[in-house]
Write a structure and sequence with these properties.
By secondary structure, this protein is an alpha/beta fold. It folds into 3 domains: about 220 residues, FAD/NAD(P)-binding domain (3-Layer(bba) Sandwich), CATH 3.50.50.60; about 90 residues, no CATH class; about 140 residues. The chain contains 17 helices and 20 strands. The strands form 5 sheets. Strands 8-7-16-17-18-15-19 form a 7-stranded mixed β-sheet, with helices on both faces. A hairpin with a 5-residue loop joins β7 and β8. α1 runs parallel beside α17, α3 runs antiparallel to α4 and α4 crosses α10. The longest helix is centred in the N-terminal third of the chain and has 25 residues. It is globular and about 70 Å long. The two termini are about 40 Å apart.
């Protein structure tokens, strides 16, 4: 049987693969997006893992870049049923004494909440928004959708003004150093740091990433949830892809990228079927792409060594999903009840020291004895994700991929019970009667479900300064082209990184059409 021929083959039908497929298909290319799993969407996954009728978002949930993501408007995803809701209470930190600190979609309300803890910090917060909000909107956000420039070019632009020099200074600090300099209250600091690991993959002590702090505070990215569950966005992208004439395959594991005389020629699946194309784009992680699919025999030894040295995520996530009779109800002091409508719940990360303590154990391969996690109650905002009158909730505890001296299957149930007990200290109605069923997901479950997330790392490569921008994932492929002619990269291992942002897809589409000398419909060319 003659092999099928295409203009471009895309490996992986996560959101980056689907967006890229749409952009290239609309530009007139014959495209096929190939997926190992039956379900498209990758991290855009919503499943009934507890009880039928209870929808649980297993991976991506806090979609805080939809409002800035060009693909959402370019592909008119709302017309394909991808609809979002932005809760007024964006995030909240609940304290053991019943007080809470909330981040709202309204600056005055946020500052009023902060002022209950520190008048000085409330004023500082307002000043940061005024000083950095426009800069983040006009400079930083566009950079997320542009190929990364050389470090010297960035410095040259910024050092020409006092504001630019200050940004460069922040970019030499850790997030914790910035919050320590700007704020006096430990809870205010913790609320900011709470936004670093998820969804950004950044830790409090990562040097050179202090500029993420003003990005969080300015809120140019809006935390939102997909109505109906995260998979709704995946289905919208899939439908758009098909309307544009592209093809998709499911249950198709690409085992080999075919290379002939230094050029890509197509792919071969695990079943031995061949697909031919002069362009292949991998949205898969760096190591799997080159060491497994391309093969070291097609790589320069020095490049292969750099690929092997690429550092994966430093932490993973242990998830606990709950099917509930009624929503959790926090015990609060008078006037602090807004925590019961917060999208992101910070439970246990009260002070910067809590992040240090949890990460110290993770870096030693220990299951964190300190329970501190990110949580949410989706049905507060979207009742359709559970049967009428019922609710869902979940928590994400940061953990190591492997536990020294233990197996995940041996500890998952007991650890889940401990996490629920911690939440119950703040919301006493999380009783055994209220909880209809519990489902857990360990880092090993994540890796087994989505092999792209090696070692349970949802960011497909550490989000530290050495693997960001021009160095993500390596300088040799940071411009989305690779040493193999016709092979491109476009997954979360590329700039700007993980999360439902579609930056890698948009940048890759721009570069591929440049190389093909084709017009870009989204630019009006």
């Amino acid at each position: 049987m003659e092999a099928a021929k295409y203009d471009a083959l895309i490996i992986g039908a996560g959101h980056n693969g689907l967006v890229l497929g749409c952009y290239l298909a609309k530009a007139g290319l014959k495209v096929c997006v190939m997926e190992r799993r039956l379900e498209v969407g990758g991290g855009l996954s919503t499943e009934e893992i507890t009880i039928p009728g209870f929808a649980h978002n297993l991976h991506s949930y806090f979609h805080d870049t939809i409002n800035i993501m060009p693909a959402y408007q370019d592909l008119d995803l709302e017309s394909h049923n991808a609809r979002y809701y932005r809760p007024p209470v964006q995030a909240g930190l609940i304290l053991p004494d019943g007080r809470s600190l909330c981040l709202y979609d309204d600056l005055d309300k946020t500052c009023a909440s902060i002022a209950r803890f520190s008048e000085k910090d409330a004023q500082t917060w307002r000043e940061v928004v005024e000083n950095y909000g426009e800069y983040c909107s006009t400079v930083i956000i566009p950079a997320l959708y542009s190929a990364p420039s050389l470090p010297s070019e960035q410095i040259g632009i910024m050092e020409g003004s006092p504001e630019g020099l200050e940004w460069l200074r922040l970019g030499r600090m850790t997030p914790q150093e910035v919050v320590d300099e700007w704020f006096e209250n430990e809870h205010v600091k913790a609320l900011v740091l709470h936004h670093m690991p998820i969804p950004r993959g950044i830790l409090h002590d990562y040097a050179g990433l202090g500029t993420v702090v003003p990005l969080v505070i300015s809120q140019v990215e809006h935390a939102q949830i997909a109505l109906g569950g995260s998979h709704i966005t995946a289905h919208a992208l899939w439908r758009k892809l098909l309307t544009l004439g592209a093809e998709t395959t499911s249950l198709t594991h690409v085992e080999k990228i075919i290379v002939e005389d230094g050029k890509v020629a197509g792919v071969m699946t695990a079943e031995g079927k061949t697909y031919l194309a002069p362009i292949v784009i991998s949205t898969v992680d760096l190591k799997q792409t080159f060491l497994k699919m391309v093969g070291e025999e097609n790589l320069e030894p020095a490049f292969a060594a750099k690929v092997r040295g690429h550092r994966l995520d430093e932490f993973s996530v242990f998830s606990v999903h709950l099917a509930l009779r009624e929503a959790p109800k926090f015990t609060t002091q008078p006037g602090f009840d807004d925590i019961n409508q917060s999208l992101r719940l910070d439970i246990g990360f009260d002070r910067p020291e809590d992040f240090t303590e949890v990460m110290a154990e993770i870096r030693q391969g220990k299951l964190p004895s300190k329970l501190a996690f990110i949580a949410s109650v989706p049905t507060w905002f979207d009742p359709s994700q559970a049967p009428p009158g019922f609710h869902t909730a979940f928590l994400w505890q940061l953990v190591p991929y492997k536990i020294k001296g233990a197996n995940w299957d041996d500890v998952r149930e007991e650890y889940a019970e401990r996490c629920i007990a911690k939440w119950r200290e703040y919301a006493p109605n999380l009783t055994s009667h209220n909880i209809l069923k519990v489902a857990t997901q360990t880092p090993e479950d994540i890796e087994n479900r989505i092999i792209n997330m090696a070692q349970g790392g949802v960011f497909m490569g550490r989000m530290n300064h050495a693997q960001m921008e021009h160095f993500r994932p390596l300088p040799e492929v940071a411009q989305f082209r690779t040493p193999i002619q016709g092979l491109y990269m476009a997954g979360a291992c590329m700039h700007p990184g993980g999360g439902i942002i579609a930056g890698p897809a948009v940048i890759a589409a721009d570069i591929i059409l440049d190389d093909l000398k084709r017009p870009k419909w989204w630019d009006g060319e």
